[in-house]
Design a protein that fits this description.
Number of helices: 2
Shape: globular
Order of helices and strands: EEEEHEEEEH
Structural class: mainly beta
Oligomer: single chain
Length: 155
């Protein structure tokens, strides 16, 4: 089970007002389950405006073999957490959480945008191992990263 609630509140823009994060369960293929958290700002007229999205996953044997050099583990999760550094600057931490074992920190990415309402971009990647560089934001590559970061362009 993931540790985040179905609805979460977090300031991801640096405005001092929390955005609303809504959980969405998705499947990629037949047995790959993930959770997407879409964050929305809310204006004075109670209109929702998309800001950014993050993803977390149950770890399967294929994913796990690319992350760690050990036998298959049950109930492992890849989780991602946003931390506001400054207005329009976020840090996205990525980790492998394992039942009964210490979490494995995979690294983090610095996300920036030019102004409110514009999409975030990856400014820096800081993987703890070069194998993790391409999975800090998503297990599904650059196209999926663009979808998560440019959620503000979706209307």
């Amino acid at each position: 089970m993931l540790y985040r609630p179905t609805v979460t509140f977090q300031d991801v823009e640096g405005t001092g007002s929390p955005a609303i994060g809504l959980e969405e369960v998705f499947h990629h293929g037949t047995d790959d389950t993930g959770w997407r958290y879409r964050y929305f700002s809310v204006d004075a007229a109670d209109q929702f405006h998309p800001v950014i999205a993050t993803e977390s996953y149950w770890v399967d044997s294929i994913v796990e073999s690319s992350l760690i050099d050990s036998p298959r583990e049950e109930n492992a999760l890849i989780t991602r957490r946003l931390t506001l550094l400054a207005p329009n600057h976020l840090r996205l931490d990525c980790r492998l959480e394992r039942t009964g074992r210490a979490s494995l920190e995979l690294g983090y990415a610095i996300l920036v945008r030019r102004r409110a309402g514009s999409p975030f971009e990856v400014a820096e990647r800081h993987p703890n191992d070069r194998r993790y560089a391409d999975i800090l934001l998503s297990m599904y590559g650059v196209a999926s990263e663009r979808d998560l970061l440019s959620i503000s362009n979706i209307q």
